Amino acid sequence: MSPFTAEVIGTMMLILLGNGVVANVVLNKTKGNSSGWIVITFGWGMAVFTGVVVSSSVSGAHLNPAVSIGLAIAGKFPWNSVPIYIVAQMIGAAIGTSLVWLMYRDHYRATDDAGAKLATFCTAPAIRDPWNNFFSEAVGTFVLIFAVLFIEGPNFMPVEESAPAGLGSLGALPVSLIVLVIGLSLGGTTGYAINPARDLGPRIMHQVLPISGKGSSDWGYAWIPVSGPVFGAAIAALLFLVLG
Could you say which residues of the chain have pLDDT below 70? Predict the structure, then answer.
């Protein structure tokens, strides 16, 4: 695989399993209906684990524009590769969320709540307060990027050109545990997008897919799960440089 393909596949797996667990919990007549926040956060953590496992040996398993941007600011990733990675991540997110829709299509039909349907694609705030929602996304992403820089930072750039970037499958567990604790501790305000591609790619698909009774895609909120994570990633990377 090329790094581009690895980012597409890794992000696809992340969103397929992450939005898949949300669909299992919030849509009607599923086996996991109403099983709660712990199931969602644990499912997202394991989704990260799977996405990292399948892509880390080739691309370093960024799976998130905020990760790519944060690593570039910290000098751990070349800036000229950032746009390529972001395009791959957006494509992977769109594919992953479309697979969730196809798999759960009978349950979408059985669900009347438009907000529940939207939740299987993208995030929404528990209390709509734009600047506090922005702050929540920035803080959650700060924790993610700051921790990733200390866990994997020295290994994202290979020593030799032929060597794979990242830590391989070894890097999957600590990153997934970080995402799990972010969801448990900080996710209650906005649903912890902490990943612009994770929110924007599926939100676009929510807009274009033929989902009956889907309601609004809430584009008025969409800037927050994009800009908040990028801001948080930048602060984390700059602090890492200051401390280093």
Answer: 152-171
Per the structure, the count of domains in the chain is 1
Query: DSSP class of residue 162?
Result: T
d(CA 151, CA 155): 9
Domain of 159, in residue numbers:
3-243
* Per-residue tokens: 93: 């997110």
- pTM beyond 0.90, yes or no: yes
Q: Give alpha helix (H) positions in the chain.
A: 3-26, 37-59, 65-73, 82-103, 105-109, 114-119, 130-152, 172-186, 196-208, 224-243
- pLDDT per residue as tens digits for the range 87-130: 999 999 999 999 999 999 999 999 999 999 999 999 999 999 99
